[in-house]
Amino acid sequence: MEKTFLMVKPDGVQRNLIGEIVQRFEKKGYQLVGAKLMHISKELAEEHYGEHKERPFFGELVSFITSGPVFAMVWQGDNVIKVAREMMGKTNPVDAAPGTIRGDYSVQVGMNIIHGSDSPESAEREVNLFFNESELVSYAKDINKWV
Ligand code: RTP
Ligand code: MG
Asked: pLDDT digit string (tens) for 49-79?
């Protein structure tokens, strides 16, 4: 079953949006298989966002993502990587459609509420970067019966 890594960023935690965000993915029909509230170290932030290390906003991005707790999650389900990105909306909230998480709750690209893996390769990498095998659960849930 496909898995993706999603994370409520420090601005989303500060603004009490954890529940709202979790609810959107639950209602959609995806399954939460791992979650934790945590502080990201500078080292972990630099590794997680390593693809952006030459970009001018890298320093700001690392200091923002380490500025307060984040809510890290692993979600599972059909096409969850792509569909979660659609539900998040475009990176810059100016371009994010109403109805998406970023479109509904943010106005600045630097504080856009949520992170989501952008490909199967990054999902695999990020799930393993943030979670041990023992922190992920496996449980039966016949979603077709309920949604
Ligand atoms: P994320 O990795 O956080 O899920 O966001 P994303 O894939 O939609 O966007 P990405 O290109 O990976 O950029 C990572 C984060 O960097 C910040 N950013 N700032 N100041 C800027 O021009 C700028 N561009 C990107 C955003 O917070 C973005 O989510
Ligand atoms: Mg990205």
From this structure: 999 999 999 999 999 999 999 999 999 999 9
Tens-digit pLDDT profile for residues 105-146: 999 999 999 999 999 999 999 999 999 999 999 888 776 666
Please give the Cα distance from 145 to 147 (Å, whole number): 6
- Ligand located closest to 55 CA: 1
Q: At what angle do helices 80-88 and 18-28 cross, to 10 degrees?
A: 130
Cα–Cα distance, 18 to 113 (Å, whole number): 10
- 115 has catalytic annotation: yes
What HEC string does 77-125 produce? Answer: CCCHHHHHHHHHCCCCCCCCCECEHHHHHCCECCECCEEECCCHHHHHH
Q: Residue with structure tokens 């810059």?
A: 92
Residue nearest to atom 17 of ligand 1 (CA): 110
Ligand 1 atom nearest residue 116's Cα = 4
In DSSP terms, which residues pair with 36 in a beta bridge?
Answer: 72
ipTM of the complex in this document: 0.95
| Residue nearest to ligand 1 atom 2, measured at CA | 115
